[in-house]
């Protein structure tokens, strides 16, 4: 358990190589072993750079109409059932 910002920095930045997270098997099964979520260090950094642009505010703003349309379609299908 981490109880201070300094401890969090120690674990997440300064000594990240010393701490390997463990995840429930169902999370790995759901996301796949190659998901960015499970990578560490340089591999994580490289993958993060590849997908970063898709999560920038402008990119998110551009997909809002698609998300709204999918949500409306889903709600409409529930009402039909």
From TrEMBL:
The keyword Iron applies. GO terms for molecular function: (+)-abscisic acid 8'-hydroxylase activity; heme binding; iron ion binding. It comes from Acer saccharum (Sugar maple). InterPro entries: Cyt_P450, Cyt_P450_sf. It comes from the Eukaryota. The keyword Metal-binding applies. It holds the Pfam family p450. This is Uncharacterized protein. One of its GO terms (biological process) is abscisic acid metabolic process. Keywords: Iron, Metal-binding. Belongs to the cytochrome P450 family.
């Amino acid at each position: 358990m981490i109880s201070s910002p300094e401890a969090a920095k120690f674990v997440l930045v300064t000594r990240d190589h010393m701490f390997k997270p463990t995840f429930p098997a169902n999370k790995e099964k759901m996301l796949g072993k190659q998901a960015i979520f499970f990578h560490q260090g340089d591999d994580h950094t490289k993958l993060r750079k590849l997908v970063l642009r898709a999560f920038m505010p402008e990119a998110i703003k551009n997909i809002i109409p698609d998300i709204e349309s999918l949500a409306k379609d889903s709600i409409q299908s529930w009402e039909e059932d």
